[in-house]
Automatic annotation (TrEMBL):
Protein name: Ribosomal RNA large subunit methyltransferase E
Binding residues for S-adenosyl-L-methionine: 64, 66, 92, 108, 133
Originating organism: Delftia tsuruhatensis
Coiled coil: none
Taxonomic path: Bacteria, Pseudomonadati, Pseudomonadota, Betaproteobacteria, Burkholderiales
EC number, as in UniProt: 2.1.1.166
Gene: rlmE
Length: 217
C-alpha cells in the first residue's frame, strides 16, 4: 500500500486551491502571466496611481504580470500591444519573457552596478510610480528572512527618494511580523501619505501585505 506523506497532501491541497482560485482563472482569461496582476490592479484602482504618460519602475517584475498590468494602463485603449503612452522599466534577478514596450533589466536590485543600470535607463529623468513585489528566497530562519525582506523594502524606499518625482508613489510588498512596524515607521518618515493595503486577491492565509507611500516629504 502506498503511504501518502503529509507533504503530498499539502501539495494536493495547494494544487486544488490554485486550480479553483478565481484569480488564477481570471489571469488565464485576461492573458496575465500570474494572478499577482490583480493585487496591483486593486491597489491602483483604489488609489489611481498609474496615469497615462507615467514612467513606472517595476522591481521584482518576473514573470511579468505587474508589468503587463502597467502596460495596459499606459496603452491608449488598454491594449497589451501597440501604442504606449509612458515608460516601463522592469527589473528582476530572473529572466523575463519580453513584454512589448517594457524595458527589462536582469540583475540584483541590491547591487550597485544594477542600480546604475536602472539609473541609466531613467536617462536623468525620475519615475512617477515605483512598484516592488520583490520577495527574497526564504531561508526558514525567521530573523534572517525578516532582515532580507526589510533590506529590499529599505532599498526601494531609498531608490524612490533619489529617483522618484516628489509627488510620486511607491508600492511595496512586505509581510506582517518581522520588521513590519519599523518599515511602516520608515514609510511615515518618508512619505506624506501612507496606506497599508491587503488586496482581496492576496491570499488570506498569507502574511503578505502592501504599503503605499504617496508624495515624498
Ligand atoms: C512574487 S515575484 C514577482 C511577481 C511579479 N510582480 C509579477 O507580477 O509577475 C517576486 C520576484 O522578486 C524577485 N527578486 C527577489 N529579490 C530580488 C532582488 N534582490 N533583485 C531583483 N529581483 C528580486 C524574484 O526573482 C521574483 O521574481
Amino acid at each position: 500500500m502506498k503511504v501518502q506523506t503529509k507533504s503530498k497532501k499539502v501539495n494536493k491541497a495547494w494544487l486544488n486551491s490554485h486550480v479553483n482560485d478565481p484569480y488564477v482563472k481570471a489571469a488565464q482569461k485576461d492573458g496575465y502571466r500570474a494572478r499577482a496582476a490583480y493585487k496591483l490592479k486593486e491597489i491602483d484602482e483604489q488609489l489611481k496611481l498609474i496615469r497615462p504618460g507615467a514612467t513606472v519602475v517595476d522591481l521584482g517584475c518576473a514573470p511579468g504580470a505587474w508589468s503587463q498590468y502597467v502596460r495596459r494602463c499606459l496603452s491608449p485603449n488598454g491594449a497589451a500591444v501597440g501604442a504606449l503612452n509612458g515608460r516601463i522599466i522592469s527589473l528582476d534577478l530572473l529572466p523575463m519573457e519580453p513584454i512589448e514596450g517594457v524595458q527589462y533589466i536582469q540583475g540584483d536590485f541590491r547591487e550597485e552596478p544594477v542600480l546604475a543600470q536602472l539609473q541609466e535607463a531613467l536617462g536623468g529623468g525620475k519615475a512617477d510610480v515605483v512598484v516592488s513585489d520583490m520577495a527574497p528566497n526564504l531561508s526558514g530562519n525567521g530573523t534572517t528572512d525578516a532582515a532580507r525582506i526589510a533590506l529590499l523594502v529599505e532599498l526601494a524606499v531609498d531608490f524612490s527618494i533619489h529617483h522618484m518625482k516628489p509627488e510620486g508613489a511607491l508600492v511595496v510588498k512586505l509581510f506582517h511580523g518581522g520588521a513590519y512596524d519599523d518599515l511602516v515607521a520608515l514609510f511615515r518618515q518618508t512619505f506624506k501619505v501612507v496606506k497599508p493595503i491587503k488586496p482581496k486577491s492576496s491570499r488570506d492565509k498569507s502574511s503578505e501585505t502592501f504599503l503605499v507611500g504617496m508624495g515624498l516629504k
